[in-house]
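Your task:
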Amino acid sequence: MDYQQIFALITFAFVSTVSPGPNNIMLMASGANVGFMRTIPHMSGIVLGFSLMMILVGVGLMEIFTVYPVAQQILQIICVAYLLYLAWKIALSQPADNNGSDYKPMGFLAAVYFQWINPKAWSMALTAISVYNTSASVYGILLISLVFAVINIPSVSIWTIAGKQLQAFLNNQLKMKCFNYGMAGLLLVSTLLMF
């Protein structure tokens, strides 16, 4: 991969990871409800989970969908069902006090696993591997995965910090409830737009 391709990959990685999607909407909700520090396991799970997904997609996991097309339909159904569940959980989250003690942020392993049913993650992984791994090499796959891991760190941080900054505005139960309903709605819309 030459410097122009690497620059294009970095640009694609930043735009695709910083744009709204299920991960970022959930990070903003978590940042607003419990702050940056308690959202770090969620953020770390996204970074590692997506990087692992990228590697496995790159080494041929997508062949399963070619051989068994029904597997892709089953995955889509699971994606939608789980995202509906997450939207419901976000909508019903109501911190009892200003420190968000009742809100349960997504943990590290849950965030790692979530990448496998996140339609935006699948779209990003498939696009990155098919466009940027032109030599079809393991080195190319690892480089793409590394670029996404590094770029994902500021991207997930931006959304969590944005949520944290909203805490000053979300200073009562009604505002927090409206915010959580809004985040749940955005999560649903971002999911439906993927299909």
Q: What stands out?
A: The first helix runs from residue 3 to 18. The chain is about 80% helix and 0% strand. The mean pLDDT is 84. Residues 21 and 190 are 6 Å apart (CA to CA).
